[in-house]
Amino acid sequence: MEFTKQTSAQPEIVARAQQPYVAIRERVTMSGLAGLGARFGELFAWLESRRITPAGAPFFRYLLIDMDRELEVDAGVPVAAPVEGDGRVMPGVLPAGRYAALTHVGPPSELAEASSVLQAWAAGRGLTWDMSARDRAEDWGSRLEIYLTDPAQEPDASKWETQLAFRLAD
User: Fold this and answer.
1) Average pLDDT of the chain?
2) Which of 20, 34, 50, 165 registers the highest number of CB atoms within 10 A of its CB?
């Protein structure tokens, strides 16, 4: 698969440390995925009300992917240390490990293509994902879309940067 002009860098393998986060977990269909972005505002307000500073960019963590039925996704924000949730907002930890990563520049509508590029790159190198099949679905250990650009600061979606980071099997 070709690298598109929107891809700012070649895929690479990166080491990521364990990262605590807070999230709102939801089950959505593909058509409902775009609505999850609103959860970030909710999470930032929740953190601010507790005087907790975010420790990085917000992200979606895909836990279960069944493109024909639904996805289980955490809309998350990293924090410096573990915190307690309150029912709706739950704590989590991104696992440490080796990740295949790619930074995409462009609107969210192009992320499926960028994911395909990353997956093809990994397949061409014989890399295996931290993922297992479960009832026609993919159960991921850690598959991330990290939103590096704040749309309030950069309204032009063609300039938005999103890092895809998929954990590799040990």
Assistant:
1) 91
2) 165
